[in-house]
Amino acid sequence: MTTWTMSEARQRFRELLDRAGSGLPTRITRRGQVIAVVVAPRDFERLQAESSSFTEALRRFRASIDTAGLLSEELDSLRDATPGRPVEL
To answer: Rounded to an integer, what distance in angstroms lies between the CA atom of residue 15 and that of residue 1?
Structure first.
């Protein structure tokens, strides 16, 4: 991934957009810190779609493993039986 300073990005804005449109992301820095990354819309949409809730991630995980062959004793042995830390409510 290419890195440009903010002033380079300003001066070469059209080239920056052409690069992003062709699938080449570019980091933009200001005072040495990355402040933005310019990517193609399809890449941005893919990244947005990949973020999901914990519930959705758990559902996908459960669907990806086969628990039919596991015995309840095997499942119980996987759980940490320690009581944990004390909590004041």
So the answer is: 15
What does the pLDDT read at residue 75? 66
Q: What global pTM score does this model have? A: 0.55
Max distance between CA atoms of the chain, in angstroms, equals 66
Q: What is the CA angle 30-31-35, rounded to 5?
A: 30
Compute φ and ψ for 48, nearest 5 degrees: -65, -40
User: What CATH code would you report for 2-40?
Assistant: 3.40.1620.10
- Provide the token pair at 56: 């959705």
Give the mean pLDDT per block of 10 residues along the chain (89 residues). Answer: 95 96 95 96 84 78 73 70 80
